[in-house]
Amino acid sequence: MPLWIIPALPLAAVVVNLLLGDRLGKKGTAWLACGAVFVAFLGSARAVLHLASLPESGRVVIQTAYTWMRVGDFSVDVGFLLDPLSSVMILVVTGVGFLIHVYSTGYMAHDPSFRRFFLYLNLFMFAMLTLVLANNFLLMFVGWEGVGLCSYLLIGFWTERPSAAEAGKKAFIVNRIGDFGFLLGVLTLFTAAGDLRFDTLFAAAPLVFPAGGIVITTATLLLFLGATGKSAQIPLYTWLPDAMEGPTPVSALIHAATMVTAGVYMVARFHVLFDLAPVSLETVAVIGAATALFAATIGIAQNDIKRVLAYSTVSQLGYMFMACGVGAYTAGVFHLMTHAFFKALLFLGAGSVIHALSNEQDLRKMGGLAGRLPWTHGVMLVATLAIAGIPPFAGFFSKDEILSSAFAAGDRVVWLVGLIGAVLTAFYMFRLYLLAFRGPSRLTHEAEHHLHESPPSMIAPLVVLAVLSVVGGLVGPPMIEGGHPFARWLAPVFGGERAHAHHLPESTEWMLIVVSVVAALAGIAVAFQLYLRTPGAATRLREQWSGVHRALLNKYWIDELYERLAVRPIYHLSLWFWRFWDRVIVDGMVNGVGYTLEGASALLRMFQTGFVGTYALFFTLGVAALLFHLLRHHP
Amino acid sequence: MIPQDWALLVSALLFTIGVVGVLVRRNAIVIFMSVELMLNAGNLAFVSFARALNSLDGQVIVFFVMAVAAAEVAVGLAIIVNLFRLRDSVFVDEINLLKG
Amino acid sequence: MVPALFVGFSALLLVSALLVVLHRNPVTSALFLVVAFCALAGIYILMHAEFIGMVQIIVYAGAIMVLFLFVIMYLNLGADPERGAAIVMRRLVGWLAGAIVVAQAVLLLAGRWAIGPAGPPLDPSVGNTQALGVLLYSKFLFPFEITSLVLLVAMVGAIVISKGRGGKPNSSPDPSPEATFMGAGDARVSPMLRPGDSITPAASIAPAGEESP
Fold first, then answer.
1. What is the pLDDT of residues A187-197, one digit of tens each?
2. Which chain A residues touch C98 with a CB distance below 8 Å?
3. What is the DSSP string of A502-534?
């Protein structure tokens, strides 16, 4: 089956939507958009099944759709690569994407720009699928940029809101800085190796680049800079919390399940290169761990339900990078998958809550919704348990694997940071749950009046995601000889990892599991204590540690720092460019051409005196000139 | 026999007098008359060459030139009359309506 | 004898041409032009171009100059007033240009040049007129016929142009024979010039051109 069909389907839906959208109506658009993604999902499933039928050593499908450009020796194709890693990605992207599309038909039902929403959403699917299926750097970059563009379009979807427009701009610009790094990394690799195709480049890499050499380290660090931009790690994470200005399905799809995972996918895809540069890997691990902890601390103080989830996403992405950084790529991808399930569920569930409360997002104005929104409550509880890392929910398996891999690789600091982060994660997620669903109701009169459970179009995807959050981790139970099913599936891609991994004795493994579970339960217990058992305890604590709380609430004033350090100088530089270079020099040149022409024509106009005598004189002078010419050449 | 050089010299001088007349005079009718002088200078050259070449083609051409000159005078004077009606003047340096 | 006559006629020609250009009074200029044409006719006859010489007198001196004089009288022109420094400048430049041209012409003539091979000598028994007539109606038939067309066009054009705006005072408001001749009365012949228009459609080109400069 040709692989290009998978990204082409959403693209076709975009084209049809563009051309016929007005005539399709809301129902037609919904069917078109969801249908395209569903068929893409079926296509992906079929492709993966085909992949599974291949022998393990040859589990790779490479197809070239057509030659994109050819200049002399250099040629780049539109080519697709399907291997176990990208198979996981396409299934997650199309599967979770489909569920979110269905959810959106309910959530955005009353929005006047319904058609435009699905246009952008499908465009995003196309870009993301291109990104994960690409078999060379340039095509991947096309997808990379495409998802950035769609992120901008969708964050600023409600164009009448200036805050949304600002957030969209911020997302795009910060992403751009990362993309700059990505592009430089690609160019470095190309200059050194002369090849842009993944399979050939990775095969040749160990020969071309000396391990730990400056070139490969620089290239991978630059690539990682791109990943920090796209996946919201330190230092380029600031756009993600602001991106919550967009509609909730957008937050679920792009900023939880798919786009932000592109950075993790990228590191996993290029693991051959990263393995050759231990310095870069260490950097990845350190930044991942630091971000995980950093974001978690901010999350415990936020009052907006979506902000909490945003920082949670940043934190969880840190975990994924942590895993990759210690060489446990499988663990990172595993967590990517389970995180997609429960984070999408969390966002969509939050959207359901917001929808039910007539667009209330402040946790301080919620409470006691457990009985009144039964379905929403149920799925949100499942998701919260999953993210906290309670077995047998999905999050436990993946998070535990990350922590034990870090421990096994000898990186005890990273492990400890991850553990503390897990405690905090459990804490703030249950804080969110308790504030929203338990305790006394703090709803406003308005919200109280309109309280209603969400329609089936919104609940059904939530249920599906809840089921996935429960069973999704069961493909990766620990301590299985030869690796659990998920790891074995991914083995052809990360084969070298097995040699890399250190095996821990079983007793240590068990101890680590116990420690993680205890940590999670501890976080939950504290949350219960503060927010349910003893009312007012949280408030008193906040007043006691008001300075710390203020720092956390204000996100350590990082945004303000960036504003002062980077944004304002650049703005003033642009202003200078406009005032001087554009208005004086460029406009001067352009207008100058006009003035020069005018002047020249004014000069020439003096020949047209209107007097016949003048013209006759010129005739005569012409004749004289001719005669002169004849005289000169007369032999 | 008239040496041909003489005839051509006369023709050149006549032509030049016509040119000077066009350039120097202000009166449109006199300018026109100078143009006639130039035409006649050309005619003279044609006839002298016809003589030298023993061919009558030159004279035929002179015949046509005269016919055309007559036509030209008729139309040109009509224009000058019209111009006089419009501007009440035949002096060419007072008429510059076609100034660019 | 012939060279002497030639010199005499040429001198007369050149002097009267010069006086045409120099005289202030246009009538005098016209009369001197007549003298010049007659001298030129004499030169033609000396060159055995008898027919051309006669036609020169009949057409040029007889018809064209009469037309010139008629127009001069009609416009009631007096002597040209010459005044102003600009005029002097112009005259200087004009004479200078003329001097340049004549100098170049003389130099050209003085240099080496030659004409092509002469044709067979003319049959002396056939008169100039007869020979010209034969040539005109055989080799130059087409230009001959075209010339008649040119004359026709000139005649029509002269009438159309000089009709002026609003028609002549003694013509009826209804289309006169000249006006409807060849469709000339149907005023859409050309975008620029219509019957009754002056040569400068004042309305479109020079809105302020009605007052004389």
1. 998 888 887 88
2. 620
3. PPPPHHHHHHHHHHHHHHHHHHHHHHHIIIIIS
